[in-house]
Amino acid sequence: MKHFELMAVVWKEGKQYVSKCPKLGVASFGSNPEKAIKALTEAVKLYLSNANKLF
């Protein structure tokens, strides 16, 4: 299994928190920063899993 170090940026938009991984261009959201980061982690895992299938 490969390990990556990626940065996440989190900010508030209205009542939601948006999380984004700028390096991959993947984003998600949640009702608080922790949920936004958890959702982003899942989105990044899916993104990398799908990218891995291409190669």
Structure description:
This protein is α+β, with helices and mostly antiparallel strands. Helix content is 40%, strand content 29%. It is built from one helix and three strands, in the order E-E-E-H. A three-stranded antiparallel beta sheet has the order 1-2-3, covered by helices on one side. A hairpin with a 2-residue loop joins strand 1 (9-13) and strand 2. The longest helix has 22 residues, at 33-54. The radius of gyration is 12 Å and the shape is elongated. The model has no long low-confidence stretch (mean pLDDT 94).
List the uncertain runs: none
| Secondary structure: helix percent | 40-55%
Strand order of the largest sheet: 1-2-3
Q: Helix count, per DSSP?
A: 1
Percent of sequence in beta strands:
25-35%
Order of secondary-structure elements: EEEH
State the end-to-end CA separation. 15 Å
Q: Given the helix and strand composition, which structural class is it? A: alpha+beta
> How many distinct beta strands?
3
Let me know the largest β-sheet.
3 strands, antiparallel
User: What do the pLDDT scores average to?
Assistant: 94
Radius of gyration: 12 Å
Number of domains: 1
Global outline: elongated
